[in-house]
Amino acid sequence: MNTLFEYLVRLGDDSLILGHRLSEWCGHGPILEEDIAMTNIALDLVGQATSILKYAGEVEGKGRSEDDIAFLRYEREYKNALLVEQPNDDFGVTMMRQFLFDAFRKPLFEQLTQSSDEQLAAIAEKSLKETKYHLKHSAEWVIRLGDGTDESHDRVQSALNDLWRYTDELFFTDEVDADLEAKGIIFSSEELKASWSEMVKNVLNQATLTIPDNGWQHDGGRRGLHSEHLGYILAELQYMQRAYPGMEW
């Protein structure tokens, strides 16, 4: 197994699928300023996916471009975490999903800037600048909604209750991670989870929100086992390449 390729696909797919999810808000935001903000974050994520999947194609060495990897795979070949493919639902759900992901991505990119793989470190350094803004934005909205009206509090608490079950998968590890950690390309997921937990607990406390204690956790995305939602995303995401194979802008 090409472990670096596998890791890059996981990293890139997270950005690609969440970027596509956020793009669904374009023209539908609750206010104009927020409509623009979510669209810009979506563009940042798709830009990250482009850089990561381009490097993945180079590492794979089979002549596939970032577009080939993004648009010409089957559902089971996508390795994104289940969290990022969950539906937007209302604005509170979108912001909670974004915050839980951003709180993970920021310390992850901070770690990866120290990677022994210079290309991955460079991608992480550029992405980190964007992700710091993403986290600030989503955290502020979670606090505003959680510590706002009774309705906004209840909605964002409900979002947390539904999405929390997908968070443990963000720290999924297998032989891919073990191999890359031994080479100094990636770093400990335990340290990553500790940083994430501290950030999440701090923000949720300010938002007067309660972390669910039911212990439910779902995974499978890293192994290519997805919820029903990914199929609908790919039907839209891949339409042009499926309808007009090889088309370029």
Query: N- to C-terminal separation?
Result: 33 Å
Tell the overall outline.
globular
CA-based gyration radius: 18 Å
CATH architecture type: Up-down Bundle
Counted up, domains total: 1
Helix/sheet category: mainly alpha
Name of the CATH superfamily = Ferritin, core subunit, four-helix bundle
Mean pLDDT across all residues, rounded?
A: 95
Number of DSSP helical runs: 10
CATH topology: Ferritin
Helix content: 55-70%
What is the CATH class designation? Mainly Alpha
Descriptive notes:
There is one protein chain. The protein is mostly helical and 249 residues long. The chain has 10 helices and no strands. It has a single domain (3-243), classed as Ferritin. Helix content is 65%, strand content 0%. Helix 1 packs across helix 7 (175-182), helix 4 (91-112) packs antiparallel against helix 5 and helix 4 (91-112) runs antiparallel to helix 8 (189-206).
Quick description:
The protein has ten helices and no strands. With 249 residues, it is mainly alpha-helical.
SSE diagram, text form:
Layout: H1 3-23, H2 32-60, H3 66-71, H4 91-112, H5 118-146, H6 150-163, H7 175-182, H8 189-206, H9 228-237, H10 239-243
Observed structural traits:
single chain; 249 residues; mainly alpha; Ferritin; 10 helices; globular
